[in-house]
Structure formats: C-alpha cells, structure tokens
Design a protein that fits this description.
Radius of gyration: 20 Å
Number of strands: 35
Largest sheet: 22 strands, parallel
InterPro entries: Beta_helix, PbH1, Pectin_lyas_fold, Pectin_lyase_fold/virulence, SCF-Subunits/Alg-Epimerases
Distance between the termini: 58 Å
Keywords: Repeat
Protein name: Right-handed parallel beta-helix repeat-containing protein
Organism: Sphaerisporangium flaviroseum
CATH topology of one domain: Pectate Lyase C-like
CATH superfamily of one domain: Single-stranded right-handed beta-helix, Pectin lyase-like
Pfam families: Beta_helix
Helix content: under 10%
Strand content: over 45%
Shape: elongated
Structural class: mainly beta
C-alpha cells in the first residue's frame, strides 16, 4: 500500500507526483497552487480538500514535454493532464481547477479514470475533457465557462462510462457525448448553456471511428439553456453550426434510452439549426448514421420554444411511450401526450 504524500501551497505538486511515481497518493492541503500538472504514472490519486478549498490556477508551467490538448496549439495549457503509456487507474478528486487556456482536466487514452467532486471553472476550451478512455467516471462535478463542453466524453468507443450528478452551465454544451458509446448519463443538471446535453455521432477525417450507441440518459434536469453557440468565429461553440435553446439533442444515435428526464424552459437567444428543446435527428449527411432503435420513455418536455420536441428521424425505428410535451414536430407523434 502506497504512502500518502502531503503537499502544501507553495510546494510543487508536479515534483511530488514525479518523486512518488506509480501508485502515488497525493493529498493537497487547502489553498491555491499556481501550476499545471501532468499525471504520467498509473495508479495515482490526486486529492484536494474540496471544491473551493483547494484551488489550481495558471502559474509555473509543467514539464515542457507535457502532451498538448488534442487539436489545440502548443501554447494552450491544461490544469491537470492525464496521458501516457500505462497511465491507468487514476483518480482526481476534491479540487477547483480554474482559468486555464485549455481544459481544466484532460485525460487521453486512460483505462480506469475517476474525476469526482471537481469544479472546473472558466477554462477556455473544455471543463473536463475525457478522450479515448475506457472505464471512465465523472461524478458530482461542476463545470462552467468553457467554449465547448463543460463535461465531454470524446471518441470513447467502449466507455463503460458514468457521467452522474454533475452541474454544468455557461458552456456551449453542458454535457457532450461525442462519438462515445456504452455510457450512463444520470441525474445531471444542465442549465444556462447553448445546449444542455448533446449526443453526436459524426465521423471526422483523421479521427477514430465514431458512433453513439448503447447509452442510458436518465433522471437529468435540462432547463434554461438559452445561450447562442456557433455564431461567432472565435466564440462559444465556434466549430459547429449555430445552435441555441436546446435541452437534449440525439444526433445519429443508436440504441440510446432516454428515460424520465425533465426538459423545460429552454429558449433560443439566437439562430439555431435545431428547432426544439428535445431533438432527434440523423447525422448521415455529416458522415454519421441515421438515428435508429432509440427508446424515448416517460420524459417531461414542457415550456420550451419554439417547440418542445423536433423528431427528424424514422419514427418507425424508434420507441416512444409515456412522454409529456406541449407542441412538437410532428404534432401527431405517438408516445407524446399534452
């Protein structure tokens, strides 16, 4: 059993991680740490004293060979990076990561990742960004103020992931399930974003195979998503089309179950390619797939504009039951009551 290494403000977290090596348990005292760090050994636990009590902010840079954020320039800095061969079974918990020019937390290619009770605030690109990982968990976190996703699973083809009990706001996408499958997205609160939750199957040149399949989305509260994304070249959600006022969008998903979610009071503040608070559509025109074999059950979708739901998929290939909504397209869709 590894010993706990204690770090105080003014001491180097990076030095403690490197000296302790694989299996390190690093306990950060209360206070602010002005540095960014790279977890490059397996079995590491990095613990703070709690959100708002242990704070990581930009300052002294980590080693120059630190992996850069995917698709970002070399000068973009992440708060905590988890990346490297054999870097598995890593836990990050109990701290606030604020103000970095990249992601607050960036994990790439990890098997066995847990990010718990972390606050990712005003990190320029992503809050918590999990890419090509397996057995990944993001739970009881708070993420806001990022250009793209507050919390994102990206190209986690067999995520076996859990995204649960988080709060996201003031991002382009509160929670972004990007070409990731086998994920459970449970009991999250997403408000004040352009899109509360986006599940997108779209293949990109040079990227791994895409797909969003075999996921469960249940018990989430998606409301008041009113920001506008995709409108400004360097603004919120700049890589995508204009989008605003969406609670939950399933684009090109397959065998996704959406159960017992509250989607309410979402209103666009700008142009949007999506016309409802709940959207089901195809991504085949973008290199993805048609939306098929999804189950939309017992959701309450009310008080949204311009529509509560917009179903742009083959309805005979889906299952709808017990949903409550006001106006939608098509108006006579089965499984929706007023």
């Amino acid at each position: 059993m590894s010993l706990v290494r204690f770090v105080q403000p003014g001491e180097s977290i990076q030095r403690a991680l490197d000296e302790a090596g694989p299996g390190a348990r690093i306990q950060l005292a209360e206070g602010a740490y002005a540095e960014n760090v790279w977890i490059r050994h397996g079995g590491v636990t990095l613990n703070g004293m709690g959100r708002g009590r242990t704070l990581l902010v930009p300052g002294e840079p980590a080693p120059v060979d630190i992996p850069r954020l995917h698709d970002a320039s070399g000068d973009v800095v992440n708060g905590v990076s988890v990346h490297g061969e054999g870097v598995d079974d890593v836990t990050i918990a109990g701290l606030t990561v604020r103000g970095f020019s990249g992601a607050g937390i960036y994990a790439h290619g990890i098997s066995g990742l847990a990010v718990r009770e972390v606050e990712a605030l005003d990190n320029a690109v992503w809050g918590v960004y999990v890419r090509e990982c397996h057995r990944c968990e993001v739970a009881r976190c708070r993420a806001s103020g990022s250009q793209y996703g507050g919390i994102a699973l990206s190209f986690c083809s067999r995520a076996e992931g859990l995204v649960a009990d988080n709060e996201t706001f003031a991002n382009a996408f509160g929670i972004f399930i990007d070409n990731s499958s086998w994920a459970r997205v449970l009991r999250n609160t997403c408000h004040g974003n352009a899109v509360g939750m986006l599940m997108l199957n779209q293949t990109y040149e040079g990227e791994p195979d895409g797909g969003v399949r075999d996921c469960l989305v249940a018990g989430n509260d998606l409301y008041g998503n009113v920001l506008a994304g995709g409108a400004e070249p360097d603004g919120l959600g700049a890589a995508g089309p204009p989008i605003s006022g969406v609670g939950l969008a399933l684009i090109g998903t397959q065998r996704v179950s959406v159960v017992d979610n509250q989607i309410h009071d979402n209103h666009p503040s700008g142009e949007s390619v999506m016309g409802g608070a709940f959207v089901l559509g195809s991504s085949q025109g973008w290199g993805g797939d048609d939306a098929v074999d999804n189950h939309i059950l017992w959701n309450r979708v009310t008080g949204n504009s311009p529509l509560d739901y917009q179903l742009g998929a083959d309805l005979d290939r889906q299952a709808f039951a017990g949903n409550v909504a006001g106006k939608g397209d098509p108006e006579d869709a089965e499984g929706w009551s007023r």
